[in-house]
């Protein structure tokens, strides 16, 4: 069924979905940074156990992602995304009431299920199901909004922790899913309704060679690994380069604004070019930043954070727009789930692997992620429209 809706309705869909995505990321991906220590202390364990549970959740999300994408291809994203809010609320509630470690891990496993059916991949698939090849703009729009997930999530989690405790903070996020995110996801069109976008380039081109799937899966896995490694260890890396702790923290705070600024650039200037062009530029940003950090040391901390953040911001969009541009909207959701499954699994190992490298090699550990970034750039150069 085709619908022709005014631009204002498109803006409302993007805004609602962007806010719902902000809540999804803030209540899952970003809560361990604030709540891991009190969570672990309540069970008399090291925070490593909490991060282990979080890694397990990411593996769960990788396994259910292809199913969620295929489901969205068939019936649209509204029901799947609304279901994710219920799943998130159940998992967070289970964390809040967990009397023992096994129940705590079960809560994280359910949150992993919510991540697999409710975060970016599912949202991108929902927009592709609605807008077809014209979904590039809406995809960029929701990442612009959800780019503030850590900016909103960390302070809100910290406030609930200081006011009530970590268990009550989890309950607070569960209520936010039920009272705010679920109604926002309900704004999406029902079932298989599609929106006609005037003057959109909807014609399907010839399919690319099958090796393009493998190259793209590698690019996503490489960039997710680097992004997660930096998110976990950036302050330590910058201090290894000679920055003071204060400078390392200040530089790290620039990553969020750099991501958002780069997404604004993608929404404006770069949208005139094929997504491959912006993805190649973004993938090369981390290796260039690494060279700057090694050559100039601590004084390059801010430049490193800005370059890495900008590249990561555009690559997040590319995870949705590249498969759409290269393969078209048919079967997009399932394809996106399979393409991102290796990335989710590698993402779960990134903090441990890069942490070990940083402990063993110091600043030279950056060559690990720089090399991975260079390989991702090379893979994107091999890809053709």
Would you kindly provide a brief summary of this structure?
With 385 residues, this protein is mainly α. The chain has 2 domains: 2-195, Up-down Bundle (Growth Hormone, Chain: A); 211-382, MFS general substrate transporter like domains (Growth Hormone, Chain: A, Up-down Bundle). It is built from 17 helices and 2 strands.
Explained architecture:
The structure is a single chain. With 385 residues, this protein is an all-alpha fold. The chain has 2 domains: 2-195, MFS general substrate transporter like domains (Growth Hormone, Chain: A); 211-382, Growth Hormone, Chain: A (Up-down Bundle). Helix content is 78%, strand content 1%. Helix 14 (285-296) runs antiparallel to helix 17. The longest helix has 30 residues, at 211-240. It is globular and about 50 Å long. The relative contact order is 0.15.
What labels describe this entry?
single chain; 385 residues; mainly alpha; Growth Hormone, Chain: A; two-stranded parallel sheet; 17 helices; 2 strands; 78% helix; 1% strand; globular
């Amino acid at each position: 069924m085709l619908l022709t809706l005014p631009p204002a309705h498109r803006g409302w869909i993007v805004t609602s979905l962007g806010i719902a995505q902000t809540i999804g990321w803030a209540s899952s991906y970003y809560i361990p940074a604030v709540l891991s220590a009190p969570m672990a202390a309540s069970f008399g364990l090291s925070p490593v156990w909490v991060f282990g549970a979080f890694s397990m959740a990411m593996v769960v999300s990788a396994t259910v992602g292809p199913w969620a994408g295929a489901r969205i291809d068939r019936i649209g994203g509204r029901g799947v995304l609304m279901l994710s809010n219920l799943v998130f609320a159940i998992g967070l509630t289970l964390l809040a009431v967990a009397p023992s470690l096994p129940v705590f891990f079960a809560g994280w496993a359910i949150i992993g299920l919510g991540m697999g059916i409710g975060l970016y991949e599912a949202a991108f698939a929902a927009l592709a199901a609605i807008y077809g090849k014209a979904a590039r703009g809406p995809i960029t729009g929701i990442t612009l909004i959800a780019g503030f997930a850590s900016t909103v999530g960390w302070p809100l989690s910290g406030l609930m922790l200081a006011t009530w405790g970590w268990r009550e903070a989890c309950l607070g996020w569960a209520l936010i899913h039920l009272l705010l995110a679920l109604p926002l996801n309900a704004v999406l069109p029902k079932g298989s309704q599609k929106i006609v976008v005037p003057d959109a380039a909807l014609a399907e081109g010839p399919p690319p060679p099958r090796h393009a799937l493998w190259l793209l899966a590698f690019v996503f896995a490489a960039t997710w690994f680097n992004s997660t490694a930096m998110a976990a260890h950036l302050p330590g890396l910058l201090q290894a380069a000679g920055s003071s702790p204060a400078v390392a923290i200040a530089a790290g705070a620039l990553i969020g604004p750099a991501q958002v600024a780069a997404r604004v650039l993608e929404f404006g200037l770069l949208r005139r070019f094929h997504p491959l062009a912006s993805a190649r530029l973004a993938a090369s940003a981390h290796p260039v930043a690494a060279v700057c950090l090694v050559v100039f040391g601590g004084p390059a901390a801010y430049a490193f954070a800005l370059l890495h953040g900008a590249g990561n911001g555009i690559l997040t969009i590319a995870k949705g727009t590249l498969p759409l541009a290269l393969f078209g909207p048919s079967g997009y959701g399932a394809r996106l789930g399979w393409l991102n499954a290796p990335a989710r699994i590698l993402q779960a190992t990134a903090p441990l692997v890069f942490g070990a490298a940083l402990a063993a090699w110091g600043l030279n550990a950056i060559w690990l992620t720089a090399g991975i970034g260079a390989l991702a750039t090379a893979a994107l150069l091999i890809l053709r429209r």
